[in-house]
Write a structure and sequence with these properties.
This protein has 105 residues and is of the alpha/beta class. The protein has one domain: Rossmann fold (3-Layer(aba) Sandwich). It is built from five helices and five strands. The strands form two sheets. A three-stranded parallel sheet has the order 1-4-5, sandwiched between helices. A two-stranded antiparallel ribbon has the order 2-3. The longest helix has 11 residues.
């Protein structure tokens, strides 16, 4: 997720990123500065779970969501349970449809 955010922040021609359990600082990939570089033509979908093994991840996701520039399209989904990253898709099959709908809008 952090690498996706890094890429989209450096390449404005890419319009959409789906971030499953991004962190504020994951192995040196610091995202708060990156998210502020996004432009109005870009959109970001964030998802996390409160039971993520990286304790407090959902709070970091909320920070990133709130740090996104005004005017960009963004959506946030935080589950009580679901784990980390792609495990969210296994534990919440409806998430796939939410992501598809987000991409298509």
């Amino acid at each position: 997720a952090n690498l996706s955010l890094q890429y989209i922040s450096e390449h404005s021609e890419f319009q959409t990123a789906i971030l499953l359990s991004p962190g504020v600082d994951y192995r040196g990939i610091k995202t708060e500065t990156m998210i502020r570089k996004l432009t109005k033509d870009q959109k970001i979908f964030f998802a996390s779970a409160k039971d993520d093994p990286n304790e407090g991840n959902y709070k970091e996701v909320q920070i990133l969501y709130n740090s996104a520039p005004s005017g960009i399209v963004k959506e946030l989904k935080i589950y009580n349970q679901g784990g980390h990253g792609t495990n969210l898709l296994d534990n919440h099959p409806e998430l796939e449809n939410l992501i598809i709908k987000f991409i298509q809008t």
